[in-house]
Automatic annotation (TrEMBL):
<feature type="domain" description="FHA">
    <location>
        <begin position="670"/>
        <end position="733"/>
    </location>
</feature>
<dbReference type="GO" id="GO:0071555">
    <property type="term" value="P:cell wall organization"/>
</dbReference>
<dbReference type="InterPro" id="IPR012338">
    <property type="entry name" value="Beta-lactam/transpept-like"/>
</dbReference>
<dbReference type="GO" id="GO:0030288">
    <property type="term" value="C:outer membrane-bounded periplasmic space"/>
</dbReference>
<dbReference type="Pfam" id="PF00912">
    <property type="entry name" value="Transgly"/>
</dbReference>
<keyword id="KW-0961">Cell wall biogenesis/degradation</keyword>
<keyword id="KW-0645">Protease</keyword>
<protein>
    <recommendedName>
        <fullName>FHA domain-containing protein</fullName>
    </recommendedName>
</protein>
<dbReference type="InterPro" id="IPR000253">
    <property type="entry name" value="FHA_dom"/>
</dbReference>
<keyword id="KW-0121">Carboxypeptidase</keyword>
<dbReference type="GO" id="GO:0006508">
    <property type="term" value="P:proteolysis"/>
</dbReference>
<keyword id="KW-1003">Cell membrane</keyword>
<dbReference type="GO" id="GO:0008658">
    <property type="term" value="F:penicillin binding"/>
</dbReference>
<keyword id="KW-0808">Transferase</keyword>
<comment type="similarity">
    <text>In the C-terminal section; belongs to the transpeptidase family.</text>
</comment>
<dbReference type="GO" id="GO:0009252">
    <property type="term" value="P:peptidoglycan biosynthetic process"/>
</dbReference>
<dbReference type="GO" id="GO:0008955">
    <property type="term" value="F:peptidoglycan glycosyltransferase activity"/>
</dbReference>
Amino acid sequence: MNMRKWLRQKRVWAQLLIAAGGLFVATLVFFFNAVRSLPDPGEIADIQVSQSTKIYDREGEALLYEIYAEEKRTIISSDDIPDLVREATISIEDDSFYEHPAFDWRGVARAVVVNLIRGRVVQGGSTITQQLAKNTFLTNERTISRKIKELVLAVRLEKEYTKDEILDLYLNQVPYGHNAYGIEAASRIFFEKSAKDLTLNEIAVLAALPQSPSYYSPWGSHVDELEKRKNLVLRRMRELDYIDDVELESALEVMPEIADQPETGISAPHFVIHIQDYLRDKYGEDALRIDGLKVITTLDRELQEIAEDAVLTNVERNSELYGGENGALVAIDPQTGQILAMVGSKDYFGDPVPEGCTPGTNCRFEGNFNVATQGLRQPGSAIKPFVYLTAMQQGFTPDTVIWDVPTEFSVSCPGIVNFSNRNPACYHPQNYSQTFSGPVVMKEALARSINVPAVQTLYLAGLNNTIETVSKLGITTLNDPSRLGLSLVLGGGEVRLVELTGAYAALAADGVYRKPVSVLRVENAAGEVLEEYKDDGVQAVDPREVRIINDILSSVELRSGLFSASLPLTQVPGHQVALKTGTTNDYVDAWAFGYTPNLAVGVWAGNNNRDSLTSRGSSILAAVPMWHSFASKALAGKPLSTFERPVPIVSSNPVLNGKLIEGSLHTILYYLGRRDDPQFPNWETGVQSWLQTNSVDRRKFELVDESSIENPPAEGKIEIEPISPENGSFVSGPVDARFRIISEKDISSIEVYLNGELVGQTSDVPHRDFTYGVEIDQGLLVLQNSIVVRVTDEDGLRGEESIIVFK
């Protein structure tokens, strides 16, 4: 009996041992499977975390937008983490952090009991080290295998790092809610300040969040519970002697002010998307979303807010009065080329208008389309200053007399203009006023934006020469002479607002062109500078002619005839403002460009789908008020800056000096000796037809005898061929700049400019085929250099050629 009982007990013990052995083996297998894919200590020591790209305003203070893969994160150094942040976190999350190893046995035991009672994993008992392991390497799944992995990783972390290092890693990793990971991101989002500037009360709020970021969200519905937990943090800090009674009581009394939750998390959206595209093109998508770039832009936050208000307010007005549903604005510092404000539409997040329209097809308004950078629109008369600038470069003067009379510019059509003639082969532009003034000087024609003289001026200046001028000033879309023709001066062709504003900024900068830029500095996560703004301005056009244009456009007296009752809107008290407007055919596009030496502003008003503005909604009515709304506030309180005065130009030809010939009134081609010009018959017909029913106001013009024209100039031609150095080449040592010049007339002067400064000149030119050279000292060279040679013949005709060389 005893033997049988003993045998039964032996079998039971054997079965128990086998079961225990099997359980042990199964546990080992389970443990091995759970931890075999974990990173080794070497990988843990090289923890890499993704960081979001942050785009700031020009001061580096206002965060415009944060680009991130899934998490908003900014890693900060230990020196930038306040001790109170560490102490508050330890107090509420793991008050024995510095005493226990990687895990707290008491917390683990407590969690096991709770989980057994509940029948599932509901509590973790995790230390700060365990939380770091979970946040860095694991998911949030509640399973036993994940918990084992967490414990193993925690042990490895404690071997690789000191307690202080682990705590700082945790504070740079822990989620605080609303995609904010790490104390710096949370501080920026909830308090709009850096972590190093947080108050005790603000620190306590942030320390309260990690336990349940969504439940305790400062923007959620449990703010009362958040305040209670914040106070719990403070009391625990007092119990652990991190703060004293005075600090405790003062912090318990109030809840710190939480920043407003942004509706979109993006400021200046059109500008920011423009920046994002630039960064993506230059650095790639991965760098943009995970490398933690810090981007300091050129945006002036105050001016941007003024610009957004000006566009929205005036588009609402235009919508009621003229059916214009959109507008855009760009503001540039002419002395740097930096974009200070950019508004691509009245409301980036606005619904398309009209309701039900198809974006890109028939919408009058599309919010996220950036008209400033993406829109190609006809500039209307806004291109005229660059035509007159080119004419001045060819030897014409602001007092040159041209004729504002009905003129047919197509040589295949009758010279007598019939405005009812709709033959597309004919071209006889009408003036906005539908009246004609007869003889006018160029400066008046430009200031009053008279159409017919502008077309004549384009012909005199040369279409190719004008295209070259606007190209030098950064306009990239007007480069096909065969497509443009003489209609260019009235807005044929299409431009971008940002480029045309950049061209006007070059006028404001005395002819120095700077490509509009939007980035001041880009740093990587380590603080290394990847790129930084450098002034790359080049003397694109001679300041002498630019000053003439600035003088014309800034003359209130000259433009008064055009603006009439709207004249006050073209002025800003205490500032000298140059201004030009533009309206395209059928009032599709309305423009206004106004500038001082320190601020250039361009605005556009119209409809995305090119529907016309109704009720003759011209630039004066639809665009100038928008420009004035911005400029009057942007320039308020700024010191006065004035344009350089032009040097008076006197020509041997009286018609170029604002005089008429007594008893011999003809088109300007007559006095230039170009009577065989294909345009001469039609131009002359226009003048003589006008004189049959109109008379010249002799009070405006001095009449001189035809004999005062000693040698009526004939059409000439100047060719300039650069010999050395080669365009685009790199040079060292003194530069031997040599040019071959071929002229149909005797050459009166040759001038050579380096970066706008005269470095060589001569009037001793023995023959019409001549090679001129000048040696340029190496000390005068900068990284990028413009060498310009300008040649003038005996009749005042000018030729110019330029090359770029690099040091």
